[in-house]
Automatic annotation (TrEMBL):
One of its GO terms (cellular component) is plasma membrane. GO terms for molecular function: Wnt receptor activity; Wnt-protein binding. GO terms for biological process: canonical Wnt signaling pathway. This is LRP1B protein. It comes from Rhodinocichla rosea.
Amino acid sequence: KLFFTDYGNAAKVERCDMDGMNRTWIVDSKIEQPTALALDLINKYVYWLDIYLESVEVVDYQGRRRQTITKGRQIRHLCGLAVFENYLYTVNSDNLSILRIHRYNGTDVQALARLDNAKEIRVFQKRTQAAVRSHACELDPSGMPGGCSHICLLSSSHKARTCRCRTGFILGSDGRSCK
């Protein structure tokens, strides 16, 4: 799945398949400017910053069990969001610091370090990497991902895929080759 935020005409947090199909709103009320998003892949939670409502919130992948982690004026200066173990990590663009927020007790906020000009943050750790299993976009015997001549996108499951073409090409009737 692909998770993303939108604060155009109607602010929301959404998810869809990797090929863009099955687009679903998971948060569409009491939300104004969701600017950063992070996933807890193990427990299947979506965290986001809303800089207009000055809050950090969480829901499960279906948009249920919504909770506010923390609220306050300091939220309007946050950008980027990552989750690891019991903490959320974010960047305060006002004073250029990395913040750690306890995700079960939002009052426990600590500044960890200062940076020059960060706008995003990611946690790279072996335990946060999902195990790779066989999937529909693996290289076929001729070296094409999922048998697609240009682009292979996972669809509704790891066993389904959609072929797409680079700009200037159209998908052939076989659903795999681009012309």
